[in-house]
Amino acid sequence: MKTLNPNDLGKKFLVEECQKISMNFFSRQAKQKAKKVFLTSQIEAMDKKIELITSNVHFGGVRYWFKCPLCAKKVGTLFIHPLTQQIGCRACLRLEYRSRKYKGMLENNK
Ligand SMILES: [Zn+2]
Are 39 and 64 a contacting pair, CB within 8 Å? Predict the structure, then answer.
């Protein structure tokens, strides 16, 4: 950053010449910290043994995943089996989706 001299007073400066205080940067940092606290507390509240896995995102962030208790893969969604109450990913619990055609019909009738 340049030091100001009296002749600079009427001059227009470039944003690159100024020290930056960025809300986006603060928000990103706050989100990272809050996210971990929130996710951990949600899992504790469910009283289930679910672990989190992180992966690094391209622009320096961290992404959170569930660790499937059965296959240990990182997944975005876990399910609780209606009969066994076992927690696992869709593949481990051998769950299937309704057919796409049927799903589309339901959504269109909303
Ligand atoms: Zn699994």
Answer: yes
